[in-house]
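Problem 12. The chain below contains 157 residues. Write out its predicted structure in token notation.
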Amino acid sequence: MIECNSIKGGKVMIAEDKLVFRPSVYAVIVNEGRILMLNTKSNGKYFFPGGGQNIGETLPEALRREVREEVGLEIEIGKLIHFKEQFFYYDPHDEAYHMLSFFYECKALTLDLLSDDSVDDEESEKPRWVDLNELRQTNNNIEAVDEVLCLLQEYER
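Solution.
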């Protein structure tokens, strides 16, 4: 049995043979003191635009596709700023993943976000530019968000 983080919070024990291997890629986009985030429908927490990589797709291709689908922006991909391996349980579909998550610093080439009803994603909604200071003060309960925010704070020094 493998201990997985549940999207709804807490830990869930999952049989190893139920895990699906899932490389994922996420954009960390900061513009004028605000960071681009999406609301996660299952738990109401903020997360970065991005998601799973399809077979035959490079990480940059996956990242550009996911950002277009979820927020409607074109991006320039910068450096890899964080990597996180995790075991994740997606309660709504009773699915479990062994995730390799790559977080890239990106620059927005366009700034107009999709309207809420145009987001093409089952789990993510409401793309927003969120004030970095406000986001740092919230309790995300999502380890990767907190880790990336700490890294961003170190870069600002």
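Discussion. The first strand starts at residue 2 and ends at 6. Students who got a different answer should revisit the alignment rule from Section 12.3.
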